[in-house]
């Protein structure tokens, strides 16, 4: 099972959040059953440049066999102490293509399509010399995304201010996500540009059924 946590913090806690980004991995390694995790900064996801960063919202994505153990873990408790609000998403992978840090962490088991909300996670490692070209191509896609019928929420995510970026989006159902992915002119043009310019050294696209949603940010 995949769990995503997003925390909104007070400005006075930004320094503590940065320490979490540096040291959480040492605590998470001690949580039994966790097979993959990433600490995440967030942003508007409009241009994917450092100016998009939102220092008041931070996150974690974890893959583990026991979501309850994650909730009660020391690292999550530490985040809760500085958070003014929390959004927790419990996800079941439906499809996953590509790689994240050399592996595809989302194990897809037999799971029939349901009429539930759908979460999409896209993530890419952008080649350093391609960043400017990528940033110029992003605005039409993000504009189309935010105006797409069926989109509930979208947030930019990243492991670093530059080069390791993606999007987490929540959709009303699978058909709304498919409409954006395959019928949006801006998105299909971006796919073609990606193949032409080879912006990424690594990329991943995954879809999940939203099993449980708790809280908000």
Q: Which residues form runs of ≥5 with pLDDT under 50?
A: none
Strand order of the largest sheet: 1-3-2-6-7-5-8-4
Task: Write down the secondary-structure element order.
Answer: EHEEHHEEHEEHHE
Q: So how many helices?
A: 6
Count of the domains: 1
Shape: globular
Number of strands: 8
Largest sheet: 8 strands, antiparallel, barrel
Category from helices, strands and their pairing:
alpha+beta
CATH topology: Alpha-Beta Plaits
- The span between the termini is 22 Å
Instruction: Tell me, rounded to a whole number, the average pLDDT.
Output: 82
Portion of residues in beta strands equals: 35-45%
CATH class call: Alpha Beta
Q: What is the C-alpha radius of gyration, as a whole number of Å?
A: 17 Å
The CATH architecture comes to 2-Layer Sandwich
Which bin fits the share of residues in helices? 25-40%
Secondary-structure topology with pairs:
Elements: E1 2-9, H1 14-28, E2 34-43, E3 53-64, H2 67-71, H3 74-82, E4 83-98, E5 118-126, H4 131-146, E6 151-158, E7 164-171, H5 174-183, H6 185-197, E8 200-215
Antiparallel strand pairs: 1-3, 1-4, 2-3, 2-6, 4-8, 5-7, 5-8, 6-7
Helix pairs in contact: 1-3, 4-6
Labels describing this entry:
alpha+beta; Alpha-Beta Plaits; 6 helices; 217 residues; eight-stranded antiparallel β-barrel
